[in-house]
Amino acid sequence: MKNLLIFIALILSTDSVVASSKNAGIRLKEISRFEGVRSNALVGYGIVVGLANTGDSSRNRATIQSIANTLQAFDLNIHSNDIRSRNVAAVMITSTLPPFSQLGDKLDVNVSSMGDAKSLVGGTLLMVPLKAPNGKVYALAQGPISIGGYKYDLNGNVVQKNHPTVGRIPLGATIENTTNEKILNKNGNIGLILNKPDITTSQRVLKTLAIALPNNKIIASQPGKIEIEPTSQDSKQLFDVLAKLESIVVEPDSESVIVINERTGTIVSGGNINIAPTVISHGDIKVAIKTRFNVSQPSFIGRNESDGIVTAIVSETDILVEEENPQSVSLSEGATVIELVERLQEVKLSTRDIIVILQSLKQAGALHANLILQ
Predict the structure, then answer these.
(1) Structural domains in the chain plus CATH codes
(2) 352 and 265 in contact (C-beta within 8 Å)?
(3) Residue 173's pLDDT is what?
(4) Which is deepest, 245, 297, 300, 313, by most CB within 10 Å?
(5) C-beta of residue 275 within 8 angstroms of C-beta of residue 256
């Protein structure tokens, strides 16, 4: 299967578009969050029933014990040694509790098999309490599982799509307890946390807030944190200030970044990342090893094996080495990453080769951007 190259130009390379993008601002709510306002992870353990003989085997004692405990909750006392079922699977359930959630709100939940179940297709999750790290139950999850894949196995032949042991229940959990988010921090101020701490961006936000909120004292305590002192503790005025803060438009300082996923061959980069004048020469060496097994059968059958004449399997190995001529690419001053990738594709380099070249350019100091490998 050929490697797939997906190159996404986040910023077009034309001068007019680049100039306009630099002047375009972003709402403060897109690049920051309020201190104390955060989501919380939830997790739970349960069982999925209704599987068509694709559940956990009897080797999974936790599943067998869970079935016995569930039946005992309905006044059915059955010993775990008497349970034989492949229609049940032990699973872990995860979800996220967003801030300002209210009782009765619905959450999406993810369901993942823990044992040796072949598939969760057609299964139903029985009621499971979802807990936060503090041990408190915040939601209850239950419902039929939606699976985005399948797996069929017969006589050693397997047909599989995606992961049939992982599923999802849209709106499958109901919030039973809420969190207490505090708008003001311990200093009595509104804390604004930048999603990506940056000194330049912090200074720009500070100057913009000083103009938008002239009556409030604004302090940049850290590169990623800005505090706004409210003029009143009245909740209505506080929410008015919060709404105004979210709608303020600022121009964050952008960093040149190239994201490379070596597993999928995906390269994501800004289109205006420049490369210093350079010449790239890249060649491949291909090694092919072929082995044939021949049966050496003695032509004289009259002798027995004690004479040292036996049938033997002899291997013949051929090693073929092919070295391709190096492909050269020359880039002038002002060339961008987009132009580089286009030139490399013209000489029919693979995605893996392009990734290696980008890493080499970074090490040589010709690529002025941060490489993030995933």
Answers:
(1) 25-37+182-248 (3.30.1360), 40-175 (no CATH), 258-373 (no CATH)
(2) yes
(3) 97
(4) 245
(5) no
pLDDT in tens, 98-117: 999 999 999 999 999 999 99
| Residue 2: band (very low, low, confident or very high) from pLDDT cuts 50, 70, 90 | very low
| Res. 156: pLDDT tops 70 | no
CA 187 to chain centre: 36
Q: At what angle do helices 351-364 and 337-346 cross, to 10 degrees?
A: 140
Distance (Å, whole) CA 228 – CA 233: 12
Q: Rounded distance, CA 110 to CA 185, Å?
A: 33
Identify which has the larger pLDDT, 184 or 302.
184
Is a pLDDT exceeding 50 seen at residue 72?
Answer: yes
**Residue 134 to residue 11: CA distance in whole angstroms:** 44
How far lies 29's CA from each of 20, 99, 224, in Å? 21, 15, 14
Question: Would you say the pTM of this structure is higher than 0.85?
Answer: no
Across residues 358-369, what is the average pLDDT? 81
Give the pair of three-digit tokens for residue 224: 């990623």
